[in-house]
Structure formats: structure tokens, C-alpha cells
Amino acid sequence: MKDLSRRQRAILDFIEGFLRENDYPPTIRDIQRELGISSTSVVDYNLKVLEDRALIRRNRNISRGIELVGRSSGRHNIVAIPVIGQIAAGLPIPVPGDLEGSDAAETIELSSELLPETRDLFALRVKGHSMVDALINDGDIVLLRHQETCENGETVAVWIKDAKETTLKRFYHEGERVRLQPANVTMEPIYTSADNVEIQGKLVSVVRAVV
Known about the structure:
This protein has two domains: 6-68, Arc Repressor Mutant, subunit A (Orthogonal Bundle), CATH 1.10.10; 78-207, Umud Fragment, subunit A, CATH 2.10.109. The chain is built from three helices and eleven strands, in the order H-H-H-E-E-E-E-E-E-E-E-E-E-E. The chain has helices spanning 6-22, 28-35, 40-52, and strands at residues 56-58, 66-68, 78-88, 106-111, 121-127, 141-145, 155-160, 165-174, 177-181, 190-193, 197-207. The longest helix has 17 residues, at 6-22.
């Protein structure tokens, strides 16, 4: 510890205090703002020093991926949800057919207090603009609960069998056909036979992309 700079000790102390108070770690921007550091790259450099000295561990795939080594982080209220690919909010694009069996290279971490039920959740990154009127934008992450049924009007991830593609739309069962309705007044619905679709998950929440 004596080899650390004053700034590095301040960062380490802030991380520890933030974890104790919030039960989840700070982001790089939290550290920059609280300690008055000039840029996120300066924060990143000092975190790398702390990491090289085995004082912290970092998961760079998530925004709150800092963990104190050898200390209780108090992260028992954090839920890691796998982000298993992309889903189209526009024209359908391929994602893995077996959502439950997919290997996730990325996870999103949320407080369990934000999610009344965490069982069977997975996440997909949105690509496209067809759900913008439902406040689901390109680049957002949608949280879904794995299920195979839904009520008319609910927003779901739907597997289109003949196209081998998945799309995010509002679902309407209309006799022998299904209408997959975008939430964008400039776009037309997708119609297909009822036996050509499989519901793979129902929308639970949206995590907004920050640009």
C-alpha cells in the first residue's frame, strides 16, 4: 500500500466506501466525478495499477465490474444476467435458437431490488428502431423471462421457424395466423402462420443505452 500514489489510495478508499454504502461497485465515471479526476482514461490507468498489484479485480465487459481482492464486497444483492446476443427491433436477425443453452460472453449486473423475480431471465441487445414508440431503442438491452406463451399485446422475443430468425415485437394471435406488430408508426407488421412461430421470452424490463 505504501507504494501507491495518493490518488490510487483515494480511489481504493472510495471503492470500498461505495461498496459498503450501495452493495454494488462504482463505475469509472462515479470515481471520476467523486474524486474530481480529469478524465475516465486517468481513472482507468490508476485502476490498472491497483489491478496489477492484486488489490482489485475487474470485469471489463460490464460497467460495474470492480471487485476488491481479499475483502467482502457485499455484492449479495447483485444479479448477473447473461446477454446472449442481439435481437432485431426491425427486420428479424439470427440469434441462437436455443436461448437457454447459449454461452454468454457478456453479462449485465443489476440490483435484485429492481427485479421482483430473477428466475429464468436472459438479456438481448436491441438492433433496430421498430420498437421506438415503446421506448425501446437501438443499442438498448432488453431483459426477458424465458417462457413459451403470452397474452395478446405483450412484447416478446419470437422465433420465426422458416427464417430461423428472432425478432422483438408485440404478439397478436389472430385465428390461424400471428401478427408481429412493431411499435413504430412508419413500419408494417409481420404476418405469418401460427405454427411458424415460437415464443422464447416475454419482455420484463429495458436497460437504456447511454450515448
